[in-house]
Amino acid sequence: MAEKIRTSRTTELEFGGPVGAFLLIFVMPGTVFYLLLTCRTKEASVLQLPGPLPPFESLWNPVALMILLAWFFLQALLYILPMGKVSEGTPLRDNSRLKYRINAFHAMMVSSLLAGVALVLKLPLSYVYDHFLQLAVGSAFLALVLSIFLYMKSLTAPMSALAPGGNSGNPLYDFFIGHELNPRIGSFDLKYFCELRPGLIGWCFINLCFLMKEIELQGSPSLSMILVCGFQAVYVIDALWHEEAILTTMDIVHDGFGFMLAFGDLCWVPFTYSLQGYFLVTHPQKLGVTAATGIVLLNTLGYIIFRGSNSQKNAFRRNPADPQVAGLETIPTATGKRLLVSGWWGLVRHPNYLGDLIMALAWSLPCGLSHILPYFYVIYFTVLLIHREARDEHQCMKKYGLAWQEYCRRVPYRIFPYIY
Ligand code: NDP
To answer: What is the pTM for the complete model shown?
Structure first.
């Protein structure tokens, strides 16, 4: 049995198999560059045809690449410093558990301090806005180099270290989806490091640079920019504060580390999630106090649902007898684990996705209603979470069978109450 688990091949391929993986390797970077190029135009219209590709010099800049490398290594240094506690991940297939240092919040604090020093020294932070496309190209390049390294490294990894979903035997598919589950150099966990640090902390830093560029151009920051930067900073700080919760997510437990996550973490997240701020620099919006108050309330509602549901599930999975969750109704499953059917998890089957999507909408609304481009995040995120929800349902159906069917009967809606 142990031998069978160790050598099992992935037979259920996702994202359209090797053909889908091949296409996505081009579509993902293509989308980032299309969005950034379009966002810079006066019209910022997705209906216009993309203009000719800019000359190579405006895409590639060794200084931008050096800045990215310096950022990456600064975050790597903060990761290995002995700050914060060490936690264990969920059991692996051989029943061992990996250790993870929980110090992303500390890394954010130190990074914020350094950003403060940069502000005091009046360093030209608007460089990031002026060279944004070159920084995005540099990040895509680094993600590609990292993915190639990860795939080469995975070829020497033992079978038991491979990702359950990334061992199809097709090199292209495995390169894309991630062949090895937890690639490490010594105790340095590459996937865990990339998930929350260079890209996510970088996203906040990019927003700060956009705010400084707006001040440079318009004399003061707009209310729209302050809301976008504030909401997104809260989201990132929340993720870093709850870093330990990432140890039970699909990304860490199930997905290997390949091009999909490397590009997602290092290029997609910082360069497309910051699109609202990028848009606002050259497309200023007037936002009244009433509209701003409504948007703040919407974001708060989303945050309450998002944080409440994630914390409820984490508390329950860590200790079902925890007084916070002990009174909730549950269904037993054959695995010994129980499923929550009341509280947030009795509202819909993925209340955390619902809260996340409400917040995503609140981040776009400060950009006004004249353009669709700043709504890219909420549109893309809806598609991503609907697809992710289907992947998770499939996994839960396999794990829990009849108990999962019972849960679906008791809680019929997946993400949006009475809609979906
Ligand atoms: P979830 O946190 O939703 O975890 C899903 C797992 O929860 C299931 O596999 C199951 O695992 C457990 N579960 C499901 N239903 C129940 C229940 N009723 N009772 C108890 N346990 C249950 O997964 P994600 O990793 O997808 O999401 C985590 C957060 O990250 C979400 O808020 C999401 O919105 C956010 N996210 C953000 C992204 C971004 O780019 N901004 C991208 C992806 C996610 P088990 O039973 O094995 O414990």
So the answer is: 0.91
